[in-house]
Amino acid sequence: MLVPDIAGCYVLSQANDYYCKWMARVRVSLMPARAGHNGVTTAGGQGKEGTVTGTLPRPDRAGVSPDDDRRLHRSLGTASLSAITLSSVIGSGWLFAAYNAAKVAGPAALLSWLITGVATLLVSLVFIDLAFRRPLSGGNVRWPQLASGPLVGAVIGWAVFLQAVYAGPSESTALAQYAAKWIPGLVENETLTLFGRLFAVAVLGMFFYVNMFGVRFIAKVNNVVTVVKVAVPLLTVVLLLASGFDTTNYDVGGGFAPYGVSAALTAVVGSGLVYSFTGINAAAVLSGEASDARKTVPRATFIALALAFAIYFGLQLAMLFTMPTDQLSGGWHGINFKSPLAELASLIGLVWLSWLLLADAVFSPAGSMLVSAGVKGRYTYGAAQNGILPRFFAGVHERSGIPRRALLLNLSLGAVIILLFGDWKSIASSLSFYYGLSYAAVSIAVCVWHAAEPSSGWLGRWSPAVGATSFVLSGLILYWSGWEKVRVAMPLLLLGFLIYLWRARRGGAPGFNGVWLVVLLVALTGVSAVGSFGGTGTLAAPLDSVLVAIICGIGVWFGRRSGLAWRKTQQHEEA
């Protein structure tokens, strides 16, 4: 069968017709509710599409009806979830992250990957614990709102919408940068030219256009893409490392940390390392469709994390120690590749691998974009349904059952992002920032639920420690991304708070439980402005990072306290 992945990937599994059934459920769920005879609520459109009739139960606090959850097929096993998660993690990040990290930090990029690996492990444990407590599909959005209330839900919902908007441009720019080998004039100084940006916009538009009409062909194409996008990176690691391991690069490039430890910290977000692991929560996000979520989600997550980390760390070793020495005459900052891995393979004599990488660099992002364009459109549709965006964008085309307005909004904003940024690194690091905030919010959810239900979690008594550590590390990663990213991303995030205030004035959102998150974001912005990571430098390292850790630690205390207060309020209302 074809199993849907929340990040837009499909993998082969047991029965050929599952995908058609899944899309039928998606189409029904996307149809706006309408009043039927005798005031009975119905869902679905007119014509041949099925309808669901009867009085629907009260939705949960994330706006999802229990009937919606019950209609999901709980059929995903460990193998399917592992493949889904690994396919989600291995995206365009493998094409550029190792190169960008080497250029920013030199051999200290290995430290960057270790930090990213530890942070990803902690976040994975948080998601596993939440899936163990409450196996919900789409939990990455629903868990923060259920645990912390509508204000946190609005900000995180806005962050998820921004993830949806940035996702397409990250893939199309990756495709365009590697396509420069065949199409002259796309790239200059590692940045897309105006022609290159217009080309990337055209590619993005083409895949959004295909998503306007149907999904059967899309799924079939991506089955092949899923296999290729995992096999080619593994082959690349093995062949590059087998070609020769030259440790003299360690000294020629200026030692382990030629640009300081701070460069290694900046590379965690700024070089796309966090972005490279952004699909690691896929098994947990699909826990509502797992056959036995308490067993399958942990297994699948750990299998995918181990394999993905081995691939990424191997690629970084290859980039650092198979690089020809003459390329380091200007230091690690001086390396300049348009298509990094392909050019490296060519330099060391693996010309056929170079051509394979160039082909896969177009093939894999294209396949991912083909499906993710539609899935991210559902993110935007959901944001409109929850009131984060105007209801206009929740419209569904009756004949196709597809939220075309949401797709067009993502396409329009994605085109603007490509024209403004023009390179994969800038877009991926911005996207990483919004994922980091989402990870922080789910970390607080673990702390809240452990305090209320100490015996129900997968982590047991370690839940609060892991949740708090994950939150603090997520905050540090946001700070280490640098002032250039913070000053752009934070105001965009605070728009989510302004939307919440607008809804509150209209009577659509109660109270201010969760205001701690807004205060935390403002405080992090202030420290970033005067800190050593692209700020004025008034607050020197490592004092700035220590201060951020303290602020985040205080945030954990307030977040837990606020979440428990929110739970009591809801229990009182429902009593």
TrEMBL record:
<dbReference type="InterPro" id="IPR052962">
    <property type="entry name" value="AA_Transporter_AGT"/>
</dbReference>
<feature type="transmembrane region" description="Helical">
    <location>
        <begin position="300"/>
        <end position="321"/>
    </location>
</feature>
<dbReference type="Pfam" id="PF13520">
    <property type="entry name" value="AA_permease_2"/>
</dbReference>
<feature type="transmembrane region" description="Helical">
    <location>
        <begin position="433"/>
        <end position="452"/>
    </location>
</feature>
<feature type="transmembrane region" description="Helical">
    <location>
        <begin position="459"/>
        <end position="480"/>
    </location>
</feature>
<keyword id="KW-0472">Membrane</keyword>
<dbReference type="InterPro" id="IPR002293">
    <property type="entry name" value="AA/rel_permease1"/>
</dbReference>
<feature type="transmembrane region" description="Helical">
    <location>
        <begin position="144"/>
        <end position="166"/>
    </location>
</feature>
<dbReference type="GO" id="GO:0022857">
    <property type="term" value="F:transmembrane transporter activity"/>
</dbReference>
<dbReference type="GO" id="GO:0016020">
    <property type="term" value="C:membrane"/>
</dbReference>
<feature type="transmembrane region" description="Helical">
    <location>
        <begin position="341"/>
        <end position="363"/>
    </location>
</feature>
<feature type="transmembrane region" description="Helical">
    <location>
        <begin position="407"/>
        <end position="427"/>
    </location>
</feature>
<feature type="transmembrane region" description="Helical">
    <location>
        <begin position="539"/>
        <end position="558"/>
    </location>
</feature>
<feature type="transmembrane region" description="Helical">
    <location>
        <begin position="514"/>
        <end position="533"/>
    </location>
</feature>
<keyword id="KW-0812">Transmembrane</keyword>
<feature type="transmembrane region" description="Helical">
    <location>
        <begin position="265"/>
        <end position="288"/>
    </location>
</feature>
<protein>
    <submittedName>
        <fullName>Amino acid/polyamine/organocation transporter, APC superfamily</fullName>
    </submittedName>
</protein>
<feature type="region of interest" description="Disordered">
    <location>
        <begin position="39"/>
        <end position="70"/>
    </location>
</feature>
<keyword id="KW-1133">Transmembrane helix</keyword>
<feature type="transmembrane region" description="Helical">
    <location>
        <begin position="224"/>
        <end position="245"/>
    </location>
</feature>
<feature type="transmembrane region" description="Helical">
    <location>
        <begin position="79"/>
        <end position="99"/>
    </location>
</feature>
<feature type="transmembrane region" description="Helical">
    <location>
        <begin position="111"/>
        <end position="132"/>
    </location>
</feature>
<feature type="transmembrane region" description="Helical">
    <location>
        <begin position="486"/>
        <end position="502"/>
    </location>
</feature>
<feature type="transmembrane region" description="Helical">
    <location>
        <begin position="194"/>
        <end position="212"/>
    </location>
</feature>
